Amino acid sequence: MPTAQGLLEQIRNGDYDAAFRKLYARDEETVSRQRTRYCQAIQAFQDMFGENREIRIYSAPGRTEIGGNHTDHNNGVVMAAAVNLDILAIVSPNAEPVIRVHSMGFEGTDVISLEHLEVNPKEQGRSASLIRGMAAKIQEEGGSIGGFDAYTTSDVLRGSGLSSSAAFEVVIGAVLNGEYNQNRFSPVQIAQFSQYAENVYFGKPSGLMDQTASSVGSAIVIDFKDPNAPVVDEVNFDLDKHGFHLCITDTKGSHADLTDDYAAIRGEMEAVAAFFGKKVLREVDKAQVWSQIAPLRKSLGDRAVLRAIHFFAECRRARELRCAVAEDRFEDFLRLILTGGHSSFEYNQNAYSIRHPKQQGVSVGLALSQHVLEGRGAWRLQGGGFAGTIQAFVPDDLLAEYRNAMEAAFGAGACYVLNVRNYGAVEVTDAL
Q: What are the tens digits of pLDDT across the range 96-105?
């Protein structure tokens, strides 16, 4: 394991440039920016935890959801991709039964005793709960745990729909897996442990898509029919050959105070399933829903019915998106993106919270996207929705116009032009 000073010298000398090209982008501007970012993170670690300790660097990417909006938590099908925004963790094991994590931009340091791994209600909604939950789950599954000190820095937008919380959970899992378990747990297992930490310790009823996309990497289709053994299928996703870019725009909405909105989607879908004596919608024949709309409306209300309709259509679209990409039918791909976006807005109804009707940044972003791209590209909300980001597939000749329109509305730097990342959570030297 290299010392912090030794690793700084290697990065400054360009020894990690090959990894940066694989994890982020090939252009020299990006490589240079990552050199600076990594060196600043290592220096911050030393300022926080002491100079010249032996360290490793772990990275976990954010993700963008391509199809299957809000289907994973009901054992559905999704298509997602890791992107070249990530969270870094500068890590050094310690000799204590304690994990300390300091995250750039946050006050204080999370300190987790490995001798007390039970759920702590006072930590719910905080990063400390995710660290404790990951350690507890790995131990429960027969893995080893141990103390470490870590400094993290992230360019995955918080509350953005790129899933910063999943990247954080996954990078903590990658650290424990690498430092204390010789990477015995698979990327899918780390994703499952991360979902457990978020559901049980953090208190958010998330599905498994975010964590799987971050942990596995690449562009993937995930079938959650058996959530204990999700089927992950990688697919080659090359936008360059079609002259398109993936743009993610941060509409600057906050995900704070939206947990109830997210939970209601899952709860209403599962209520429809329970109407038919099932646990999740994946176990229900969609023909039953269509034939029982009147009693469903009376029992559960219209929104639950519409969200169930969305679920079945989105699962089908996720599979169709995978086929369109694999068979290089790009126009069909764009059409499916648009159709899925309409379904999320109209049926799943997660473009904005009905409790905050004046806060509709996502809706404004979608309207602007349609204004610039109609007939030429595709756009949709993504992730949890209600706030955060939208996604667009933008042709080369409209990129400047699209980006200018988004940033005029939401601020300079709001529109990100991203790449699909072919690595999931890794110890960075593995990408050399």
A: 999 999 999 8
Of the chain, the end-to-end C-alpha distance in Å amounts to: 15
CB 161 within 8 A of CB 366: no
User: Which residues, other chains included, contact 106 with Cβ-Cβ below 8 Å and sequence gap of 6+?
Assistant: 127
Model pLDDT, residue 157: 64
The span from the CA of 58 to the CA of 40, in Å, is 15
- 1 and 56 in contact (C-beta within 8 Å)? yes
Q: Are 289 and 283 in contact (CB under 8 A)?
A: no
Paired with 56 in beta bridges are 91
Per-state percent for the chain, helix, strand, coil, to nearest 5: 50, 20, 30
Helix axes 302-326, 259-275, angle to 10 degrees: 90
Smallest CA-to-CA distance from 204 within 124, 104, 285, 102 is with 124
The pLDDT value recorded for residue 161 is: 54
| Of 61, 58, 60, 45, the residue nearest 149 (C-alpha) | 45
| 3-state DSSP assignment of residue 254 | coil
CB-based burial label for 267 (10 Å; 0-12, 13-18, 19+): middle
pLDDT under 70: residue ranges of the chain? 157-162, 255-256
Which pair of tokens denotes residue 175?
């650290």
Q: How many Cβ atoms are within 10 Å of 38's Cβ, its own excluded?
A: 24
Tell me the DSSP string of 249-308. EE-----TT-HHHHHHHHHHHHHHHHHTT-SSGGGS-HHHHHHTHHHHHHHH-HHHHHHH
Residue identified by tokens 């995978």 is 322
Identity of the residue numbered 230:
P
Q: What pTM, to 2 d.p., does this model score?
A: 0.81
* Amino acid (one-letter) located at 278: K
Residue 373 is predicted with a pLDDT of: 98
Q: Are 385 and 161 in contact (CB under 8 A)?
A: yes
Q: Which pLDDT belongs to residue 258?
A: 84
CA angle 69, 410, 78 (to 5 degrees): 10
**Inter-residue contact 49 to 149 (CB < 8 Å):** yes
Query: What's the DSSP call for residue 335?
Result: H
DSSP-H helix ranges across 69-159: 127-140
59 DSSP β-pair partners? 88, 426
